[in-house]
Design goal:
The chain is α+β, with helices and mostly antiparallel strands. It has a domain of about 80 residues. About 40% of the residues lie in helices and about 25% in strands. The longest helix has 22 residues. The two termini are about 30 Å apart. The model has no long low-confidence stretch (mean pLDDT about 85).
């Protein structure tokens, strides 16, 4: 995109270096159902990030009720959304502007090599704006 003049050379080495990591702790109990060996219940979720201004957070369910488990997961997801919003302050405005301009150029046009190339650029640029989230020992 620098060679094509879409972005200034000063952005050649730009890297989105921020991310979040989570870890889920569970409790396991044997199942009374013969086809299921054990049942796991989510007990807590820990989340850490390297985004400046944000710290580690720990989410714990208030009781063993399903509602409290869902509340805990909802709180965790809200925190990830907060981190995603906070990440945007570290993305150069030129990248957001280029995404917007390319999306306007493509519009509702039908498929073509020209539009496919523009959509590829949009996808690459949008990846800078996404929060990378990794699970500790989860394979994600």
């Amino acid at each position: 995109m620098i060679k094509s003049g879409d972005l200034l050379p000063e952005y050649q080495n730009f890297r989105q270096k921020y991310f979040a990591v989570f870890d889920i702790e569970t409790a396991e109990s044997l199942s009374e159902n013969e086809s299921i060996l054990a049942v796991q219940k989510v007990i807590s979720i820990g989340c850490a990030t390297n985004i400046p201004g944000y710290g580690s957070k720990w989410f714990c369910r208030q009781s063993s009720s399903s509602k409290h488990g869902q509340d805990m997961v909802d709180d965790f997801m809200e925190y990830l959304e907060e981190l995603q919003s906070g990440l945007q302050a570290f993305i150069p405005g030129e990248i957001s502007n280029l995404i917007e301009n390319l999306e306007i150029e493509v519009g509702d046009a039908k498929f073509s090599k020209w539009n496919a190339a523009k959509m590829g650029k949009i996808s690459q640029l949008k990846s800078y704006k996404k929060l990378n989230v990794f699970g500790f020992n989860s394979g994600t």
